[in-house]
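User: Structure tokens for this complex, please. No commentary.
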Amino acid sequence: MAERPGMLDEDIRVTTDIAIFTILEGHLKVLLIRRRDTPFRNKLALPGGHVRRNEDVKSAADRELGEETNIPGKTLILDQLAVKSEPKRDPRTRVITVPFVAIAPDVSTPKAGSDALEVTWVDADGVVDGSVKVAFDHREIVRDAREHVRAKLESTTIATGFCADEFTIGDLRTVYETVWGIQLDPRNFNRKVLHTIGFVKPTGKQRSTGLGRPAMLYRAGGEKILRPPMLRTEESRG
Amino acid sequence: MAERPGMLDEDIRVTTDIAIFTILEGHLKVLLIRRRDTPFRNKLALPGGHVRRNEDVKSAADRELGEETNIPGKTLILDQLAVKSEPKRDPRTRVITVPFVAIAPDVSTPKAGSDALEVTWVDADGVVDGSVKVAFDHREIVRDAREHVRAKLESTTIATGFCADEFTIGDLRTVYETVWGIQLDPRNFNRKVLHTIGFVKPTGKQRSTGLGRPAMLYRAGGEKILRPPMLRTEESRG
DNA sequence: AAAATAGTGTCTTTAAGACAATATAAA
DNA sequence: TTTATATTGTCTTAAAGACACTATTTT
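Assistant:
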């Protein structure tokens, strides 16, 4: 049943939504915007928008990232998740969305772009457990995206993507602890990171927090795959 | 630029394609159909078709599976892959496709359905290396799907999905060897499978091949996740 | 007995788990 | 010297890698 004249039965609107995570104040945060347009006007939602006829979905995600959020620094789009396609997920017309996951280092706060009234970092757990209401089925997308990031920490070195250009092993451990929601043994964690070639490389420099022994600073080490993987314990699994 | 009157700029056709794998004659095979419709009429392609306005993409994939292939027995749709969305991937109009991966036990040959002239199992490596030509960007989809299955053998127990209802440890090892393209040590493989609770469960029965000691028969053991994972060696990685 | 296939056992090596002690800075 | 944080070390345990031998069937 076409809803507009000339529209074929199979024609569908395609959007892309981006779940951008960072670590702020010891919590995993996801970037949400306050929608300027209907439906769900003034409601919180993931940044995103329509895929145009002359661009692929990845290009659309990149474009929306800039238009709506003015994300500062290096934001790393990781992967595409399973599309959301339930026929009534948009109350007005048939829309399928292609979700992406991205991670950003803990830097400054992004500014609202042209299509958004406001841009904020929101506690990801709050979105998943429902205490923060979001538009459409974006709660499910955030849940899928969070689980995707959790799983990727096991088998890849993307945890460095949450860190600034230079970071300590303690910073990196905090990423794992925050995303997985568990505590890790600092001794075993150091051994794992430093014995995995390509995970990090030393800078020679060190960083003083004012008190205590200064920590050595490292950079991301080029290797993308973590082998053998760093496995979560049973309690930290979804 | 709308191509039909009343069509909005953002309206896009959405299809789904299914890469169904099985193991036949010692090779990883993918199910292809010979297309009845244009474009690429009479060419080999993955089974698939348009997503209708009242169904989600998974339902569309299930429906197409029946319409085009009459797949016998239990075919297990595993996962959705990253969509293909390059604007010119379909020569006529804008089409985004949502690919799925499925595995089927080595059983009988499927029959062609209403939308296909022919249905055949084709060597997956031949499709990926280009010696078998396929329509659209289906070569890339088969490549992605094959890598997805290879990776899933590491961390899940889906290898049993390639086997008949009852199978031997040797059958299961052949699945790993065929999909990964390497040889595995039978002793270490047996130890891994039998020491992983929930991977397989014994039936008590045994199967005689006519010559040699009969092999014990097992069934899939309920557990879906393989922990710790069975990791590929470096040579068998994509 | 010979041939063919299935299944089991041991030693080594790697890496994670579970622990406490030492090092380096500022106050 | 006290306090705070970073870093290193050892013993144990789990599991994979690399091997050869025994078991059960048919011919």
